[in-house]
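Tip: read the tokens left to right.
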């Protein structure tokens, strides 16, 4: 349905462009926006607040500088009137049978690519829209979502010891339904859609974070529901995520996150038996680690993760790659903030 809308046509055709062309285009786009971006952005404000030597009695504490760690969202939200443009890219396996020098340690391949926009409607409420390539056999994913911050950690205020933010999204696949494969292949195809609702998945997440001195920690209980799954798979999964931020210098920060999915053992056993020899059904938890590099106006992440997919809707229930087999990958996140409008107050 979305594929027929003119607005989405150029976005949905990005998968036809080569990986090298996409990377070159994104870097040119970000480099050329310097003349248009204004310096009163969310990142600038957070850096100024963090570096200020004079703290008000109840000043807000910046726990993270970005909206995302490696795989996980953070409790931070954009200020009212701020628009963030973000590109996330996961390459192929660094090592293992699909990595190594033959594949230039994963740089020849793109596991997943995401282009996203997030806007601050108020100082607490953000909305977002993204288009993701998708990994595995479910691709061409369009995401809409909201992010709302209930509570913000405040300095010198025991009544606000943590920040609490909720995130929710709906993701739809616009790829063509597969009804022509063999019976054995159809059983493991995730795009065997019979109606539009089969294309949807949803995530509801509550993030609770606190900053202890210079170190920030976060818990992210997460619920994922997929409307259509392969035979014997789970439609609903609960996961618990943790994240951390440890500054190594003023603008160079170590970040990491981990998600454990609570899966049904009966479902896992049935999948392994049913698809033995056809498809790797061994699931693994998602772990990512990397570096955050801050500059005025934009943020850059160098990521290392075993997940091929970028969206929570996909990497929580369907991560089949593991660090122990060399199935981890390079990746990067680039985010640029713009001032759309200023509050008259």
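Filled-in amino acids:
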């Amino acid at each position: 349905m979305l594929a027929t809308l003119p607005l989405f046509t150029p976005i949905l055709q990005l998968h036809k462009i080569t990986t090298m062309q996409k990377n070159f285009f994104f870097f040119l786009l970000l480099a050329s926006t310097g003349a248009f971006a204004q310096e009163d952005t969310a990142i600038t404000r957070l850096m100024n607040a963090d570096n200020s030597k004079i703290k008000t009695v109840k000043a807000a504490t910046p726990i993270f500088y970005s909206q995302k760690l490696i795989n996980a969202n953070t409790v931070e939200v954009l200020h009212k009137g701020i628009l963030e443009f973000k590109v996330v890219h996961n390459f192929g396996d660094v090592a293992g049978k699909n990595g190594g020098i033959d594949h230039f340690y994963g740089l020849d391949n793109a596991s997943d690519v995401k282009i996203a926009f997030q806007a601050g409607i108020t100082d607490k409420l953000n909305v977002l829209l993204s288009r993701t390539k998708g990994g595995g056999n479910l691709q061409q994913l369009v995401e809409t979502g909201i992010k709302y911050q209930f509570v913000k950690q405040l300095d010198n205020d025991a009544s606000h010891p943590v920040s609490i933010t909720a995130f929710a999204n709906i993701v739809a696949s616009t790829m063509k339904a597969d009804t022509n494969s063999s019976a054995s292949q159809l059983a493991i195809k995730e795009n065997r859609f019979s109606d539009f609702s089969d294309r949807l998945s949803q995530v509801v997440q509550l993030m609770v974070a606190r900053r202890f001195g210079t170190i920030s920690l976060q818990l992210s209980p997460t619920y994922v529901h997929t409307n259509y799954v392969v035979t014997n798979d789970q439609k609903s999964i609960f996961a618990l995520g943790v994240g951390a931020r440890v500054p190594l210098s003023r603008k160079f920060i170590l970040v990491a996150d981990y998600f454990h999915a609570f899966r049904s053992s009966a479902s896992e056993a049935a999948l392994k038996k049913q698809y033995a020899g056809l498809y790797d059904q061994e699931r693994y938890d998602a772990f990512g680690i990397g570096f955050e590099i801050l500059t005025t106006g934009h943020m850059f992440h160098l990521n290392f993760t075993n997940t091929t997919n970028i969206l929570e809707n996909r990497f929580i229930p369907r991560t089949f790659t593991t660090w122990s087999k060399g199935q981890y990958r390079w990746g990067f996140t680039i985010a640029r903030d713009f001032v759309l409008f200023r509050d008259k107050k």
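Residues 2-339 form a domain with the Porin fold (CATH 2.40.160.40). The CA atoms of residues 84 and 337 lie 4 Å apart.
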